[in-house]
Amino acid sequence: MLHPPAGGLVGLASVTVRVFAASYLLNTYGVNVSQAYGSSMTPTLATKGDVVLLDMSAPYRWRAARRYGDRANTVLTVGDVVTLSKPTDRRVSIIKRIGGLPGDTVTVERPAGPPEVLTVPPGHIWVVGDNAAASIDCRYYGPVPAALLTGKVLWRIWPPSTVGALPPAPVSAARGEEGGMPPSLPGLPVDS
Fold this sequence. Notes:
alpha+beta, globular, disordered C terminus
């Protein structure tokens, strides 16, 4: 026969609330696991099926450091792969590589017209997909608010043959001014 926890229903409710609170805090400010879909990050991530481990506290720590004047913090750097809410539909989570931080200069090449030089405004970041031809990213919707950042990819954890840290940006993501990347990416994106 099963016995209720000490304290009866009040004790059970207390344990339940603590478990849900701990789970919420871990998933929001700790680590989380996510599966990547889409072709915008190939060849770094497969079109479907790669599972990544996310540091969910990185965006909070980076924003706090910048808010208090620590511009040299390295919680998030150009080249890191991050998750964020899609600027055009915040219910959708996307995965991209940081191409520029606030104050960085990026160069965007488009099929028609001369390259455009932009400075990432305060409170914003520039994100791009590793597969420029298949990525809808900042070249399409401009710098995104840093508040949309939700996590930093720490490791790929599935499939087993590719477990480990993600490789740096592919050679096609050319380095731009001030060591930023990719800023010189040919073509407009064709899909997300």
